[in-house]
């Protein structure tokens, strides 16, 4: 078990290096000269040269990659330039007897510190996405077991048909219509907003986006979970249970449900890293100051440091969650052995 | 053994019927699937619509401003249309009181000459329709024609991006699954890198970089959306094709091909590819649906097609603001046409999978 975890962590290193290389390649090479992106309409050569120096992009690529790795390692809280004190600002402060902290990487658009941006935006995203994931799974399982119970009947086929149609309508249409009717026309929920007070947000501003996300996510979840239940129903142990006279309800709830939970939990595990990105569409429409909206705004402003940091850390979180899910298997299903 | 074979051959020989291949069988099964056939007809209809709109046979004049602003749908002819009547109410200059400035205006001597010249220019005023079959947008363009034009963009992006993603996924999957070894490991690493970044984030990162890159500035627009979707969406196909190639690489027919001296490329793409092509086809179909949805969202956010071309996504973006003043038809046109196509395409995908792989049900 421990050996398995250590080996998996060891295997993460090349993947993480690859993620960093990919991001570096995209943003420092394909994305063009960052100094030109940042300077915008400034044409003064000297100023552009200054910006290049400050960003470190006047250095060769391998050095830039090193700077990037350094920043990733310290959580973007300290730029390499500030660390080695290239402009002497920290030495000056120290000489004056003042504290001379290392300068964090800053957003190009707002000059906010990148780690601060990420930390403050994660809260609202989780406020929306955690209830969504939990409620969607519970509702999905309950409904799917109901549909699997009446499998093959007209009801089953009708529900599956409705699911296919519901999945075909764009998420955008759902949000636009729901926001218009529930928020604007009928005034049941605020159209948009956020306070920063957890309980107020959760009870006032979050319900509509949460309900929308669950409503939209339920159709695919229902289809998938139903297929998991149907897979289990054809197994021998189910036939044996029926043969010895166990009631159909008990077969479904006790025998089938427990075994179908394994693929269902896998699926939840796959969806788990996604809750950190959040639904950027919901956050944009309902003006929730979450991570998804922050990334989208950064994309529109070509705010590369924010996108780079978000991508690297979300990739790390994804890898770690995947490992945790694999370890959880062992707990849920004792038949699993680690190779 | 030989006796059995000759017996089988003798019964089959007089019929002179080659046994039907995978595709013939699949087509026969698909023809029997009523839902699948209906879906196929709808999808073909949309594809024809796209081709027609591309060649200019249909919706050629979609950008013509034929109606008043936000013209009502013809089945709601009586409804009030404040925006429309405002735009129809003659030119705004009529209300400005005329002030004689000719004694102080240095250009006064030229007034007459200009009047003569303007008189020579013919102005024809086309009357703007009060109602259009399914309403008009802000500029009085017919919403149905706009939806057709939007379908062209969205379906084009979906098809081309899905095709490219399938090609990338298949080629990389074939290399990794068939060759294995160092190349396989390298491709697996590549795959792990791409899948460890959440998919939405990967698309947004590509969009950010491609959007701000000066080298790619001239390719902005539809081509860029296709590139973003294709470069980020190949991973699922790669995984499946790789598994298929691993399975097939050790099969006897491949060994036989090796024995007669077929090269690696030939074995990979002439011998094995036809046997895994049904996987590719189902994946292609699935990705078209996924990419059409993605294109709509990207265009809605302004990261997709440019402002001057119309797609279902840009229509929805306009419709969001229109809904507040009660103009729901553009939202309905874009949302409905997309829902119909995507439903039909997903059902066709399901039917295709059933037809091509009858073992999975």
Topology:
The complex is a heterodimer of chains A (339) and B (361).
Chain A: H1 2-30, H2 34-39, H3 45-55, H4 61-73, H5 80-83, H6 89-95, H7 114-149, H8 154-168, H9 171-185, H10 198-205, H11 207-233, H12 236-243, H13 248-271, H14 274-277, H15 280-285, H16 291-300, H17 304-332
Chain B: H1 2-12, H2 22-32, H3 34-55, E1 67-73, H4 82-88, H5 111-120, E2 129-132, H6 143-179, H7 181-196, H8 199-212, H9 222-232, H10 235-249, H11 252-259, H12 264-300, H13 312-324, H14 329-356
Parallel strand pairs in B: 1-2
Helix pairs in contact in B: 2-14, 3-6, 3-14, 6-7, 6-9, 6-10, 6-12, 6-13, 6-14, 8-9, 10-12, 11-12, 12-13, 12-14, 13-14
Task: Name the descriptors.
heterodimer, A: 339 residues, mainly alpha, MetI-like fold, 2 domains, 17 helices, globular, B: 361 residues, two-stranded parallel ribbon, 14 helices, 2 strands, disordered N terminus
Quickly give the structural class of chain A. mainly alpha
Helix content of chain B: 55-70%
Secondary structure tally: strands of chain B: 2
Query: Outline of chain A, from the CA principal axes?
Result: globular
What does this molecule look like?
Chain A is mainly α. Chain A contains 17 helices and no strands. In chain A, helix 7 packs antiparallel against helix 13 (248-271), helix 7 crosses helix 17 (304-332) and helix 9 crosses helix 11 (207-233). The model of chain A has no long low-confidence stretch (mean pLDDT 86). Chain B is mainly α and 361 residues long. Chain B contains 14 helices and two strands, in the order αααβααβααααααααα. Chain B has helices spanning 2-12, 22-32, 34-55, 82-88, 111-120, 143-179, 181-196, 199-212, 222-232, 235-249, 252-259, 264-300, 312-324, 329-356; strands at residues 67-73, 129-132. In chain B, helix 3 (34-55) crosses helix 6. The longest helix of chain B has 37 residues, at 143-179. Chains A and B meet through helix 1, helix 8, helix 9, helix 14 and helix 15 of A and helix 7, helix 8, helix 12, helix 13 and helix 14 of B.
């Amino acid at each position: 078990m421990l050996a398995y975890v250590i080996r998996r962590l060891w295997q993460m290193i090349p993947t993480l290096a690859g993620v960093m290389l990919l991001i570096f390649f995209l943003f420092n090479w394909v994305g063009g000269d960052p100094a030109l992106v940042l300077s915008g309409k400034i044409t003064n050569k000297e100023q552009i040269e200054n910006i290049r120096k400050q960003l470190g992009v006047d250095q060769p690529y391998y050095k830039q990659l090193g700077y990037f790795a350094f920043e990733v390692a310290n959580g973007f809280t300290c730029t390499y330039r500030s660390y080695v004190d290239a402009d002497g600002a920290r030495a000056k402060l120290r000489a004056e007897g003042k504290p001379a902290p290392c300068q964090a990487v800053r957003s190009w658009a707002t000059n906010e510190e990148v780690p601060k941006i990420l930390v403050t935006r994660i809260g609202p995203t989780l406020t929306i996405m955690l209830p969504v994931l939990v409620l969607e799974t519970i509702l999905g399982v309950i409904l799917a077991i109901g549909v699997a119970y009446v499998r093959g009947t007209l009801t089953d086929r009708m529900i599956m048909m409705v699911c296919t149609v519901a999945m075909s309508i764009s998420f955008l249409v759902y949000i636009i219509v729901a926001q218009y009717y529930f928020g604007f026309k009928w005034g049941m929920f605020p159209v948009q907003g956020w306070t920063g007070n957890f309980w107020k947000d959760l009870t006032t501003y979050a319900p509509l986006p949460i309900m929308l996300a669950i409503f939209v996510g339920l159709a695919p979840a229902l289809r998938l979970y139903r297929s998991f239940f149907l897979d289990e129903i054809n197994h021998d142990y189910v036939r044996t249970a029926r043969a010895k006279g166990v009631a159909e309800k008990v077969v479904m709830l006790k025998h089938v449900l427990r075994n179908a939970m394994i693929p269902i939990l896998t699926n939840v595990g796959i969806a788990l890293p996604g809750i950190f990105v959040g639904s950027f569409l919901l956050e944009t429409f309902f003006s929730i100051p979450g991570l998804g909206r922050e990334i989208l705004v950064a994309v529109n402003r070509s705010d590369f440091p924010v996108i780079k940091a978000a991508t690297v850390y979300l990739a790390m979180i994804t890898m770690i969650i995947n490992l945790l899910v694999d370890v959880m298997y062992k707990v849920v299903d004792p038949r699993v052995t680690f190779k | 053994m030989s006796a059995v074979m000759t017996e089988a051959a003798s019964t089959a020989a007089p019929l002179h019927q080659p046994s039907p291949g995978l595709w013939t069988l699949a087509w026969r099964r698909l023809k029997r699937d009523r839902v699948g056939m209906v879906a196929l007809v709808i999808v073909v209809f949309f594809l024809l619509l796209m081709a027609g709109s591309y060649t200019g046979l249909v919706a050629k004049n979609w950008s013509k401003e034929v109606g008043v602003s936000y013209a009502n749908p013809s089945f709601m002819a009586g409804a009030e249309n404040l925006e429309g009547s405002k735009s129809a109410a003659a030119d705004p200059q009529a209300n400005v009181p005329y002030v004689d400035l000719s004694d102080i205006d240095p250009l006064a001597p030229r007034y007459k000459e200009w009047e003569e010249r303007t008189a020579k220019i013919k102005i024809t005023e086309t009357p703007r329709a009060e109602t259009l079959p399914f309403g008009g947008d802000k500029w009085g363009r017919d919403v149905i024609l706009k939806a057709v034009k939007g379908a062209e963009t969205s379906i084009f992006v979906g098809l081309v991006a899905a095709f490219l993603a399938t090609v990338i996924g298949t080629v990389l999957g074939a290399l990794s699954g068939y060759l294995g070894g160092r190349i396989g490991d390298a491709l697996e690493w590549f795959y792990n890198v791409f899948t460890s970044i959440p998919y939405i984030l990967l698309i947004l990162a590509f969009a950010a970089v491609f959007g701000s890159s000066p080298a790619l500035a001239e390719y902005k627009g539809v081509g860029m959306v296709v590139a973003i979707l294709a470069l980020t969406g190949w991973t699922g196909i790669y995984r499946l094709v790789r598994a298929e190639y691993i399975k097939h690489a050790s099969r006897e027919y491949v060994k036989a091909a090796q024995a007669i001296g077929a090269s690696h490329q030939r074995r990979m793409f002439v011998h094995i590819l036809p046997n895994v092509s049904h996987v590719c086809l189902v994946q292609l179909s699935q990705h078209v649906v996924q990419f059409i949805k993605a294109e709509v969202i990207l265009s809605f956010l302004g990261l997709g097609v440019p402002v001057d071309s119309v797609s279902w996504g840009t229509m929805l973006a306009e419709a969001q603001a229109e809904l507040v003043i009660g103009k729901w038809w553009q939202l309905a046109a874009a949302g409905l046409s997309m829902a119909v196509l995507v439903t039909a395409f997903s059902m066709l995908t399901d039917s295709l999978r059933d037809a091509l792989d009858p073992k999975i049900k």
